[in-house]
Amino acid sequence: LARPAVEAGESLGFLPGDLQQKIDPYLRPLYDALCDMLTPDKLKEYMEKKVIEVVPLAYMRGRTLNNAFIILDEAQNATSMQMKMCLTRLGTHSKAIITGDTTQIDLPRKSDSGLAEAPKLLADIPGISFVYLDKSDVVRHRLVRDIIDAYEKRAREKMPAEERRHTERRQEDRREEDRLKNLATQVNPSL
């Protein structure tokens, strides 16, 4: 499990402590998710045996991850070069899941997001798929959908009409692609 070490809109400045203490705040959401799924003893065992590793994205350079299941979380905050570096860590018998929300980019320039760029570069490569989620997929508090609606409405209102129509068409296309992929998987589960 990896995440970019990017702060959400405010700088926390110098953090005291050793390396683990400095990176822990960036990785805390991954630990929280693991604690929701595993007992503390089982998590400790898996981490000690390196069955599960939680690392900052920057520490993946130079590695080849064979027989691995890789999750890059918050990938909207990975630059294009970091995204390439992460994706090229794949070794034999490995899979990668890249997650993120391009509406929550915290990089100084949103255009630097490797997640935003990836569909344009990688969509036609066999073995790579993209799945787009929307507010109906939210599994947090019921109010989160309403909060997302409010922010999306404001964003649409600020957007020029032509760009708004283009964005709405893209969202419809993504939903249709996902629907067709789900149907194809139901017909042929090996897809």
Structure description:
It comes from Candidatus Thermochlorobacter aerophilus. Keywords: ATP-binding, Cytoplasm, Nucleotide-binding. GO terms for molecular function: ATP binding. There is one protein chain. By secondary structure, this protein is mainly α. The chain has 2 domains: 2-130, P-loop containing nucleotide triphosphate hydrolases (Rossmann fold), CATH 3.40.50; 134-191, no CATH class. 46% of the residues lie in helices and 6% in strands. The strands form 2 sheets. The chain has a two-stranded parallel ribbon with strand order 1-2. Strands 3-4 form a two-stranded parallel ribbon. Strand 3 (69-72), helix 3 and strand 4 form a beta-alpha-beta unit. Helix 3 crosses helix 4. The two termini are 25 Å apart.
List keywords for this structure.
191 residues; 2 domains; 46% helix; globular; two-stranded parallel sheet; 6 helices; Rossmann fold; two-stranded parallel ribbon; mainly alpha
- Structural class by sheet pairing and helices: mainly alpha
Strand-and-helix sequence, N→C?
EHHEEHEHHH
Strand order of the largest sheet: 1-2
**Taking all residues together, what is the mean pLDDT?**
85
Q: Describe the largest sheet.
A: 2 strands, parallel
Number of helices: 6
State the separation between the terminal residues, measured CA to CA. Answer: 25 Å
Share of residues in helices:
40-55%
Rg, Å, rounded: 19 Å
- The fold-level CATH name of the largest domain is Rossmann fold
CATH class placement of the largest domain: Alpha Beta
Low-confidence stretches: none
Q: Name the CATH homologous superfamily of the largest domain.
A: P-loop containing nucleotide triphosphate hydrolases
What is the number of strand segments? 4
CATH architecture of the largest domain: 3-Layer(aba) Sandwich
What coarse outline follows from CA principal-axis ratios?
A: globular
What share of the residues does DSSP label as strand, in percent?
A: 5-15%
